[in-house]
Amino acid sequence: MKTVVNVSRLTAMNGSPRTATTPPAGGLVTLLAANRDFRRLWLGNLISVCGGWFSAVAVYAMVYGHSGEPLAAGAALALRYLPGLLVGPWGGVLADRADRRTVMLAGDGILAVLALAFLLADSPGTLWLVYPLTFVSAAAGFVFQAARSAWMPSLVRPDEYVLYSAAVQVNGLLFQAVGGLAGAAVIGLFGWRWAFVINALSFLASLLLTARVTTGSRRGAKGPAPGWTASFREGLRTARRNRLIAALLCLEAVFCLGLGGMITAMIYLALQVHDLGAGGTGWFYAVQGVAGATALLAFAPRLQRMTPKGRLSVIGLSCLGEGICTALLGLPTAAWAALALWGLAAFADVVYGPTAIAALLSAAGDEVRGRVMSLWSAVATAGLTLSAFAAGALLDVLGHRILLVLLGLLMAAPGAAWLLALRTGAITRTPTQESP
After folding, report:
1. How far apart are the first and last CA of the chain?
2. What region, left, alpha or beta, does residue 123 occupy, with left being phi > 0 and alpha being psi -120 to 50 degrees?
3. How far apart are CA 332 and CA 340, in angstroms?
4. Chain-centre distance of CA 399, in angstroms?
5. Residue 6: left if φ>0, alpha if ψ -120 to 50, beta else—which one?
6. CB 258 within 8 A of CB 326
7. Which tens digit of pLDDT belongs to each residue from 105-124?
8. DSSP labels for 253-311?
9. How confident is the model at residue 15 (pLDDT cuts 50, 70, 90)?
10. CA-closest candidate to residue 54, choices 207, 258, 190
């Protein structure tokens, strides 16, 4: 079916003279160069993500420094994910009812204040503050993310969704590398307090850049919106009735049951097994960022040129590859070998995002996009929360090697099931093709 492109809307939202006959951007650099408003949001998100990695490294170092317990770090990680399940879906309802730009601006301001509030937890007696602050910060972040995920895709063309997703992902990976290494360096030289200050400043920079963007689809509702509960149920019905959306949600839920524990185990590897110092997780984050960003920059244009079914195959292969690398991650005794294997896992994982998000965006209309994307985050964070907390408790019982093998199997199994379902047509079959 031919895509109809609104010429005036493209010109307004991109800030450049693009027309209906202009071909889609051929790569990430081209997309960012040609689309001014998208570039501003992308840059704002990039800066805040960098500060976020400073904060993540600092929180784990602070928790281990004051408690020394793997379970404490696992609990902190779990509380970063839990709001995605409890608050995230309602953030999606808000993103489809309110002005998405206003929600993002408010979110940046709130997150800046909360980042500074972590300074109050810097002692054994006040360490408990880390947990409510982590929860509230994550809740605000998921509401912000819901608004961004609903608004930002409207600044690009539908045939640029793969590049959009890759651009959002690559900025996180690039500054994960910089933020991870810089966070480790700052913590090692000056302590973890400055990491929280830098995080607060990054949210303020994001706010200033977001304030300069006024175009795109800022509201999902075209008329009077139903009540909050009715809106929530409408999003659930959309996800349940669309075969592809439902399959993607199931895949993400099971895969993340392994992924959350993998991250908890990584923290343990960095700080306990390989003894990389207080900012040791920064080295793992840096390797993940460099490997992932390199893969995305190289393969995003190829992913865009693939057929939709080909991109769906990449989703399953990505899960398989990362699961295998995770199962092997506990074997190396040298830090450099563990980091290399972690990089391979990141390389396998990174193509998952652009392909899966592009499929979701294509299947969900703008009027329900906030809710569908929030459901995606909710099922992911449910799995991440359970897995992160359970892995923290099981590390001392099973040991990191056995635990990583189990987590790898949890990640690889849904990938294999996805490929089988794709081969039989169970995912792509339309309702008219189903047997009565």
Report:
1. 27
2. beta
3. 10
4. 28
5. beta
6. yes
7. 999 999 899 888 888 877 77
8. HHHHHHHHHHHHHHHHIIIIIS---TTTHHHHHHHHHHHHHHHHHHHHHHHHHS-HHHH
9. very low
10. 190
Residues 311, 396: Cα–Cα separation, whole Å: 39
Q: Give the alpha-carbon dihedral of 46, 326, 59, 353, to 10 degrees.
A: 20
| Class level of CATH domain 35-214+234-429 | mainly alpha
pLDDT at residue 13 in the model? 38
Q: Where are the domains of the chain?
A: 35-214+234-429
* pLDDT tens-digit series, residues 48-65: 766 666 666 677 667 766
pTM: 0.73
What are 370's two structure tokens? 């906030």
Q: What is the 3-state secondary structure (H, E, C) of 77-98?
A: HHHHHHHHHHCHHHHHHHHHHC
Residue with tokens 């175009």: 215
Q: How far is CA 11 from the centre of its chain?
A: 29
Reported as half-sphere exposure (CB side, CA atoms, 13 A), residue 33 has a value of 7
Between helices 352-363 and 369-398, what is the axis angle to 10°?
Answer: 150
Alpha-carbon dihedral of residues 317, 176, 73, 257, nearest 10 degrees? -20
